[in-house]
């Protein structure tokens, strides 16, 4: 894929785990395969700029891994651990990340168009300026996430029984045109806390059709 590397020479740092390194080496040596690393332990790797499109990373341990400006379009990240991983500027278009765990991960300016983030954990994640259009966040945990300048146009932000959890999230400059769904607040905008009717009105003013769910917060 133009703009992404796919050679061993392009690997900044290899995974510490020998099996994961062998899987990555095999992938980079064969241009006709996708990266198959389901359940692999990729910790210690710096895969900046690599082409990992359509990779099978189901349940993989990517905690702390650098994937800056990497291609992960259509990657399978269901149940993967992305704790504190750095995916700034990465391509994750239509990535499947149901139940992925990515607390404190960096997705700044990443492209997650149409991504499946159902039940994903994104607490404290840096999503500033990310393109999240048409992504699905049903049941996603976005508490304390930084969404300033992010585009969430046409997103599905939760359902009545599985609202997106936005408590403590920062939404300054975020775009919500045609976004739909159900969310839990409160959120912070320009230093002001919004919740309930005030949050719903703020979202409506930005072209969203989102219901703010009230009631006891889950732990």
Task: Name a few traits of the molecule.
single chain; four-stranded parallel sheet; 219 residues; little secondary structure; 10% helix; 2 helices
How would you describe what is shown here?
It is elongated and about 55 Å long. The strands form 2 sheets. Strands 1, 2, 3 and 6 form a 4-stranded parallel β-sheet that branches. Strands 4-5 form a two-stranded antiparallel ribbon. The protein starts with 17 loop residues before the first helix and ends in a 7-residue tail after the last strand. It has helices spanning 18-29, 196-205; strands at 156-157, 164-165, 180-184, 187-189, 192-194, 209-212. The model has no long low-confidence stretch (mean pLDDT 95). It has 219 residues and is largely without helices or strands. A hairpin with a 2-residue loop joins strand 4 (187-189) and strand 5 (192-194). The protein has 2 helices and 6 strands; from the N terminus they run αβββββαβ.
Proportion in helices: 10-25%
Report the order of strands and helices.
Answer: HEEEEEHE
Counting DSSP H or I runs of 4 or more residues, the number of helices is 2
Structural class category:
little secondary structure
Sum up the overall morphology in one term. elongated
pLDDT averaged residue by residue = 95
